[in-house]
Specification:
This protein has 585 residues and is of the alpha/beta class. Helices cover 33% and strands 18% of the residues. The chain contains 18 helices and 19 strands. Helix 2 (69-84) packs parallel to helix 3, helix 4 (192-204) runs parallel beside helix 6 and helix 7 packs parallel to helix 10.
Length: 585
């Protein structure tokens, strides 16, 4: 219960926040661009007289009479970060540093609703006021908004001795409720500590969804309690699997950092690893992916690693439902990603029972519908919203009718044809997560992983100018930053776009390159989904974002995130000298 003194203090601070906010909101954001850097850029940031003061050596963060395990964890984490980071900006801020005001002693945190769960579209807004005198104030509707505000405050502290920006007001909230990373841990294994580091890096970039593509044809690294043989036989080894304790550690770490963990158990395709334990429920398992002399249309998989679950075998659903039930228990997240992408006709056609089904007038789309009708209702019965890749309704050859997937229980994730497929999905009434391979696939442009590939035997140029990969070229941070995920949509259609995810498929990625593949390119998406990619006049702001991203990349490296550089240090030390002043012809 909040006592009268605390209520009065909260009321006083709320009035102070409103007063300072009204006083400074009339000042343009551009007035502070050279003075302080926050990533992602806040929605409203006002600092009429850029100045800083010392941070007290006994500085504290306090949340009076507010008990919440994840808020307490975040406060402890940020207090330690603030006191020990001592970030030195690459370009010193232009501001008035004063010692005539007392050092900032306290940041007071107030949360209106301590019970709001970390679900999609939870309120992540916050207001932050740092006056020239007295305590700083952070107010948020939820714990998760408070975490975003704590991150912003941490970026307003720098130097040795520690200094903090004062006399400023920030109001902030995300434009999109879903801001994520998809990581494939089947093709190559990532130890738990690498996943935790990635989630921590997501949190400081104000991202909130870790989409965990756990299993695929290559390995089944998740130890499912009711089906232990799937991991025992389908993983790369006993030292390369995830136990229920590992999953719980990752889920709890996510909650401590305001990041949801969405599991994906891809099926019916991408299930070759299941055949190690259950060969009778997997078609075309362990067969060569593209038989010699056959056309591409007759392949068994789109890359090495074959296997589809057999929709006509009742045992398929016995095993799969046990897996789904256990995964839903391990992951409290309300979204369950069921995959359903890249079903290859040749793989199903390799099975005698399916051959008989087709010869009797059945179709491959009917086969998929049997599978969906046997699994979708079960997942929904577990109080889950089902996420599928777009293929389930948009694939040219094998798809289900939209009547099989009620929009109220279904979300589709798009990865092909950019804006075109996004438009198709929302026009059908479905909510959508955007992961366009043309813009958001982080693995693109690194060549292909196939051996004995004659396309690289050239003496005049590279194979096709696309980096040798199907989705090349490499997606630069500028490409990611400038992508507008609601382009060409009506207001009503845009409201169905939940947000976006970058994707790192791991054919050619593992822990050794994880950080550099993801960061700082993903920071570019993080900002566009948080506050957009345009300034107050509507102009794309990629030019000024370059200097800010340079600074933020440097700070991430200081925080233990192995983000790759985007420019030589010379460019950072000589602002503007590396910019274009006219477009390329």
């Amino acid at each position: 219960m909040v006592n009268k003194k605390s209520m009065f203090l909260h009321l006083f601070n709320s009035i102070l926040i409103i007063s300072i906010g009204l006083a400074v909101l009339s000042f343009p954001i551009s007035a502070v661009e050279s003075s302080i850097q926050v990533w992602p850029k806040p929605r409203a940031f006002s600092w009429p007289q850029p100045q800083a003061t010392l941070l007290s050596s006994t500085f504290t963060i306090s949340a009076p009479n507010q008990t919440h395990i994840h808020l307490s964890s975040a406060i402890k984490r940020y207090l330690n970060l603030i006191q020990t980071e001592h970030h030195i900006p690459l370009v010193p801020p232009i501001l008035n540093f004063t010692t005539s005001t007392p050092p900032l002693q306290t940041l007071l945190v107030y949360v209106s609703d301590l019970t709001a769960p970390l679900h999609h579209n939870v309120n992540e807004s916050y207001t932050l006021t740092i006056p020239t005198w007295g305590p700083a104030n952070l107010s948020a509707e939820t714990v998760w908004g408070a975490m975003r505000g704590l991150e912003t405050f941490s970026q307003l502290v720098w130097g040795d001795p520690l200094r903090v920006a004062v006399g400023l007001y920030i109001w902030d909230a995300p434009l999109f409720g879903h801001r994520g990373i998809m990581l494939d841990t089947s093709r190559n294994y990532y130890p738990v500590e690498d996943i935790l580091r990635t989630i921590g890096a997501m949190s400081v970039n104000k991202m909130n969804v870790f989409h965990w593509h756990i299993t695929d044809s290559h390995s089944f690294p998740l130890l499912v309690p009711s089906e232990p043989d799937l991991a025992a036989k389908g993983s790369y080894g006993s030292d390369m699997l995830y136990t229920p304790d590992d999953v719980n550690k990752i889920v709890q770490f996510g909650l401590d950092h305001g990041v949801r963990i969405i599991p994906e158990i891809d099926s019916p395709a991408h299930t070759g690893s299941w055949a190690e334990a259950y060969p009778d429920i997997v078609t075309c398992a362990n067969m060569f992916w593209w038989p010699a002399g056959s056309m591409w249309e007759d392949r068994l998989a789109s890359e090495p690693g074959t296997g589809h679950l057999n929709p006509l075998n009742p045992k398929t659903y016995q095993v799969l439902k046990r897996v789904i039930n256990d995964v839903a228990t391990l992951f409290p997240e309300p979204f369950y990603h069921a995959g359903d992408d890249e079903i290859i006709p040749g793989c199903w056609k390799a099975d005698p029972a399916i051959q008989s089904f087709l010869s009797n007038g059945g179709t491959l789309s009917q086969l998929l519908e049997i599978f969906v009708n046997s699994t979708f209702p079960y997942i929904v019965s577990l109080n889950r919203t089902v996420v599928y890749w777009e293929d389930v309704i948009l694939d040219v050859n094998i798809r289900v009718p939209t009547t099989a997937l009620p929009p109220e229980h279904t979300i589709l994730q798009t990865w092909n044809n950019g804006h075109e497929n996004t438009k198709k999905i929302v026009s059908s009434g479905y909510r959508v997560i955007v992961s366009s391979s043309d813009f958001y696939y982080l693995d693109c442009g690194h060549g292909d992983f196939l051996g004995n590939d004659s396309q690289y035997d050239q003496q005049t140029s590279d194979n096709s100018g696309n980096g040798g990969s199907w989705c090349g070229p490499f997606k630069t941070w500028q490409t990611i930053y400038n992508y507008d995920i609601t382009y060409g949509l009506s207001k009503e259609e845009a409201n169905l776009v939940l947000g976006g995810e970058v994707a790192l498929w791991s054919e050619q990625a593992d822990p050794a390159v994880l950080d550099a593949r993801i960061w700082p390119r993903t920071s570019a998406m993080a900002e566009t989904l948080w506050s957009g990619n345009r300034d107050e006049t509507g102009k794309k702001r990629y030019a000024e974002a370059t200097d800010r991203l340079n600074e933020w990349r440097y700070r991430m490296v200081r925080r233990g995130i192995g983000a790759e550089p985007i420019q030589p240090l010379w460019c950072i030390r000589n602002p503007g000298m590396c910019n274009l002043v006219q477009p390329f012809a």
